[in-house]
Amino acid sequence: MRAIEIGRLSKTFGRGGRAALAEIDLVVGRGEMVGLIGASGSGKSTLIRHVAGLLTGDRGSGPIKVLGETVQDDGALTAQARQVRARIGVIFQQFNLVDRLSLLTNVVLGALGRVPGWRGALGLFTRQERLLAMEALHQVGMADQAMQRASTLSGGQQQRAAIARALVQQAQLVLADEPIASLDPKSARRVMEILSHINRTFGITVMVSLHQIDYAFAYCPRTLALRDGRIVYDGPSRALTPAVLTDLYGAQSEELILPGSWGQPAAEDCDVGAPIGALVSVGAI
Predict the structure, then answer these.
(1) pLDDT tens, position by position, 105-120
(2) pLDDT tens digit sequence for 191-228
């Protein structure tokens, strides 16, 4: 089964502008955790936004299929795109939480795609929906902070809350666009551990763009390397040695490697929760 299938995707910004993506062909299987690396301007965020249905390719681009449905083709979104978006959790570098609301309320908002519009507008969520949010917070190790205002949380905690919201959304695919770029190393490892946890535990497909290869090496079995809008490597993360990166990127490879951290093993699993009941399961959380 395929979670993502892309054929001949190209994207140019502005008439006669630079090609942000060029002839991208890509298949990601369901249940994979894939790292997406590249220097600044290589096309990582642009690719993620196309898969999420937030951007459309150039005319003449082939189809993008997500979770078995065609979401765009020939540079235009399809009628199914909106429905498929409800099954995709997108996590950005900016945490996109509502500061004045509690952590629990921010996370339960992930259920908006499944509740009547009037209930969502009034913030009327059922006890079951709130239980789902509490269990999602348990999965990311934050159940004891459920009633804190989002504005009081650290950056790493807010990013973990964004992952919990994707769980409540019942996302089958999580696209994380530079989710650790603004975090300190300890918080960055925690976020990556949680993404790895939901991938392994629930079979959720994860594609995460990263500025440093070290995190892809530690947490993602497969890595895609982009340069100038093209995929220049697609294979096992552990085959991406410093020498290979230098061949691919030349001097730019220096910004992809954290000094002194190359090849370090992933940290032990953080204290994320094992399922506390039957609430959290693929398609049923």
Answers:
(1) 999 988 887 777 777 7
(2) 999 999 999 999 999 999 998 888 998 999 999 999 99
Name residue, tokens 């600044």.
40
Which domains occur in the chain, in start order? 2-92+173-256 (3.40.50.300)
Check the CA dihedral 185-38-25-60 and report its sign: positive
Instruction: Dump the DSSP string for the chain.
Output: -EEEEEEEEEEE-STT--EEEEEEEEEEETT-EEEEE-STTSSHHHHHHHHTTSS---TT---EEETTEEEEETTEE-TTHHHHHTTEEEE-SS----TTSBHHHHHHGGGGGGS-HHHHHHT---HHHHHHHHHHHHHTT-GGGTTSBGGGS-HHHHHHHHHHHHHHTT-SEEEEESTTTTS-HHHHHHHHHHHHHHHHHH--EEEEEES-HHHHHHH-SEEEEEETTEEEEEEEGGG--HHHHHHHHGGGGGGGS-TT-TTPPPPPP-SPPPPSSSS-STTT-
More confidently predicted of 265 and 255 = 255
pLDDT for the residue 3 = 97
Q: How many CA atoms does the CB half-sphere of 5 hold within 13 Å?
A: 11
One-letter amino acid of 280: V
pTM: 0.86
Query: What is the spatial distance between Cα 57 and Cα 74, in angstroms, rounded to a whole number?
Result: 7
